[in-house]
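FYI - complex with pyridoxal-5'-phosphate, inputs then prediction.
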Amino acid sequence: MDNEKLKALMPITSRPSVLMHRGEGSYVWDVEGKRYLDFVQGWAVNSLGHTPVEVRRALETQSALLLSPSPAYHNAPQLELAATLTKLSGLHHAFFTCTGADANEGALKLCRKWGQLNKSGAYELITTHGGFHGRTLAMTAAAGKPGWDALFPPNLPGFVKVPFGDAEAVRGAISERTVAIMVEPIQGEGGVVVPPAGYLRELRQIADERDLLLVLDEVQTGMGRTGRLFAFQQEDATPDILTLGKGIGSGVPLGALLASERASVFAHGDQGGTYNGNPLMTAVGLAVVQTIAEPAFLAHVREMGARLTSVLESLVGEMGRGSVRGRGLLLALELGVERAVEVRDLCFEAGLLLNAVRPTTLRFMPSLRVTPDEIDEMAGILRSVLGRISE
Ligand SMILES: *Cc1c(COP(=O)(O)O)cnc(C)c1O
């Protein structure tokens, strides 16, 4: 590592002092040639693994054709991706973004506009404690991350927070100012928190009864991560607004804001952006969606999710404490002791990338193409690290 150059980088987090150089499938190599088995995958981003052929092919073809015609003109990949996603989700309109946070900003704008048009200016969103929706100022205010309230005051008003997984609490928080309910189907950054069965369906019902919009942030749970194309399909709870990011680009910056006809209230001029819907990223998104939406692909995710779950459950059995939670290939191992960061660092040394999502919790978000052998290899490294810390 060149420490002089490191000084030029804005210090926003601590990172191990290696340079990541090359990736392929479930593996990544640093510049020294050390190989790591990757169960972080760009933060649940590389849905098809590192440098997948589908993404490389789409980038190569599209980059030789057209990069940015400007948002003033149509391009074919954007139209194709919008048609594909609306068909698959049951929603009606799509707007493309570069990040998940930006998609959520669009969702917030739609809600506020819809409130102006339909609910006498109601503007409040009910969000959840422990929720995460991105790092813009508005989404920092929407989040329920402990301590985030105090980061950049004054906070954007208009968010009321309730406990996650508690539909009755949502009912109790509704006032004449409420316009929408916004949740993640499973809280990702919050620690892979799975709500009780029926939660999303109940939120759908509340939204219908009280004439509110239901916004689902599937930036992390979408695009096959939980074993369905979208997590809401598990409960048939189609939202009015759906946001996507992370896995939809499988490594390139792409997000999407989808809305039903009822919720799609932007007038010309209300929304836009220089790179939004650019053909380079939407061509990749199209290749990714077409790959993931295949029934056999999603069956593989469910199968590998079951295998990873049972492997982690064996580790819990060997440790004599802890638990496993999550769905599909978004899983967490609760260690029962505050040693997740130490385990993550020891795994890193041993050539395994994991995320310590909580002080007591490890998160697993491998490539959706992960193989049984790779899961077993991961378990072998983790088992030996867990054995060492219990000595
Ligand atoms: C990662 C994430 C976001 C933010 O996406 P960015 O691309 O980092 O802006 C929003 N919501 C959820 C649920 C996420 O996991």
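The longest helix spans residues 295-319. The mean pLDDT is 97.
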